[in-house]
Design brief:
Two copies of one chain form a homodimer. By secondary structure, the first copy, chain A, is α/β, with parallel strands linked by helices. Chain A has helices at 9-19, 32-38, 56-64, 81-93, 107-115, 130-141, 152-168, 183-195, 211-218, 243-250, 259-271, 283-289, and strands spanning 28-29, 41-46, 73-77, 96-102, 119-123, 174-178, 200-206, 253-257, 299-304.
Chain lengths: 321, 321
């Protein structure tokens, strides 16, 4: 490829080297029922089995592993999987993370993050945005920010999931990837198309949070504020300055799925594949089962991005079969 | 071994041959958190990922695959995982199964079994026992009964899970196995001790359904009627005529766990390992996490026997963390 991005395939290979023996090479699971329903041969890369329960650990560890030797503190903002990922990476690398988290973040997530030894700074969503607060703090304290997706080392780390998947299943022709801020999708497109130029990498987004689909189609960055979706990993307002150009150039398409399709996919993954998958993690399977993607007997890879769902949270989504 | 049983290691190897390419060689998963909490290196053989969601498919397919050529019908009794396993095996082998199921069996299980094309004969628990009804029908129709556990081909089939586990993880020193009627435990002891004579195979049972533990300790077959436990796969009244002598001779021990320990293990498997596991499937992890087994830094194998839990059923078991 002649176009140059903030991240290249060599960065993803370097990330894979750094993650070797630290991150899990997560299993790739298949299901005869899924194949039948999707009319495809489907390979699910289960990042729900990644450390901290989501792919986010890959990027976080890669980013924290590359801060200058003298930097023993980092700052980030997240109420979700990135927070836990940075917290664990920090504890493994002996770097103290401070995490800016909304005051109304779920108690269980706050606790899990604190349990890894991270400092947590609560803020009031109505008074400030997390980005502004982070920049203020970073300046005051002179420590680097590790943002959730728009950072070269984060993107490179997230690309290692697709690298592993295509190494184990080189026959994959279509690859479905959840899309929020685009860290996973941009890293995946870079890895997948470097390995296999003809592969079709398709982002999947909730229909109610379709900023990436709009941006991809129009070529201009669209923003959606406070999108209403159960897929909390895809509630990001827009793609990033680094992720957007990569996705725009290398992804084949971005499709959207309904909330019902997401719930149906979670239920299918639970009942038929015995997998605990969070709503965002079910986006790819939702696209297959709801017919948004016509797989046409192809070999389809799906990245199941995470599995952080509280025990007992499922009933709210349950519906009769 | 000089003692002779109804089943030998050669039968388990033959079963593995028959199951090759039909049953799933299920993944073995590990968790750093589980290792830490159990003070051991733990290898979970996840039969929740087996076809029909439980190890029962192994025995059922092995048994149906060995009926005489002319036999195109079989009879069984089960309201649970064995019913679905026989139904799927029958459909794959072109054998028509008839399944005697209590009239009050969960609708979802009746439907799943019927969906594989099995005939279902409902009966009234208060009027007759399933064994009596099955023998009556088998005589009338001249077709063989494939019981849920007390049958050489069932035992041999169930033993293939341990065979796979020890082939992939030969360092295992202790092996924890859920125990109901003892089909899985007897097959596992036969396979494991043939491969590795010093291995300690330990059955795990709910404390409220401790017939196997009592039988193992006393040497006489104990019976518990209608045991109250959420582990429905362990509600069998007693070990079988074939399974008991094998377990008595080859198992190292049978331990019991509380209902709270079972629920705690399910919650751990859900939240930390992202696995949907049914109560019976969680027995081994319950023994480890509740300290009933002192693992003492050993390499411990755990057979997670199944994952058939309805979506939305979890909340009933949920408790605050």
């Amino acid at each position: 490829m002649s176009v140059s991005f903030a991240v290249g395939f060599e960065d993803i290979r370097a990330a894979a080297g750094l993650l070797q023996g630290v991150a899990n090479n997560t299993p790739v699971l298949t299901s005869r029922t899924l194949d039948m329903r999707a009319n495809a041969r489907v390979y699910c890369k289960c990042e729900s089995f990644q450390r901290t329960g989501a792919f986010k650990f890959r990027g976080a560890y890669n980013a924290l592993g590359r801060v200058p030797e003298a930097t023993r503190e980092v700052l980030t903002f997240s109420s979700g999987n990135h927070a836990q990922a940075v917290a664990l990476a920090g504890s493994l690398l002996d770097i103290q993370p401070t995490i800016i988290m909304p005051r109304d973040a779920p108690e269980v997530k706050r606790k899990a993050t604190a349990a890894y030894g991270a400092n947590i700074i609560p803020y009031d969503r109505s008074e400030t945005t997390r980005e502004v607060l982070a920049q203020q703090l970073a300046r005051e304290r002179g420590i680097p920010i590790i943002p959730p997706y728009d950072h070269p080392h984060i993107i490179a780390g997230q690309g290692t999931a697709a690298l592993e998947l295509l190494q184990s299943q080189p026959s994959i022709e279509v690859l479905l990837v959840p899309c929020g801020g685009g860290g996973l999708l941009s890293g995946t497109t870079l890895a997948a198309r470097a390995i296999q130029p003809d592969i079709r990498v398709i982002g999947v987004e909730p229909a109610t949070a379709n900023d990436a689909a709009l941006s991809f189609k129009s070529g201009t960055l669209h923003t959606v504020h406070n999108p209403q979706t159960i897929a909390d990993g895809a509630r990001t307002p827009s793609l990033g300055a680094l992720t957007f150009p990569i996705i725009r150039a290398l992804a084949h398409d971005i499709v959207v799925v309904s909330e019902d399709a997401i719930i149906g996919a979670m239920q299918f993954l639970w009942e038929r594949m015995k997998l605990v998958v969070e709503p965002t993690g079910a986006l790819g399977v939702a696209a297959l089962l709801s017919g948004v993607i016509s797989a046409d007997r192809k070999n389809v890879g799906v990245i199941i991005s995470g599995g952080n769902v509280d025990f007992g949270q499922a009933p709210a989504w349950s519906k009769p079969t």
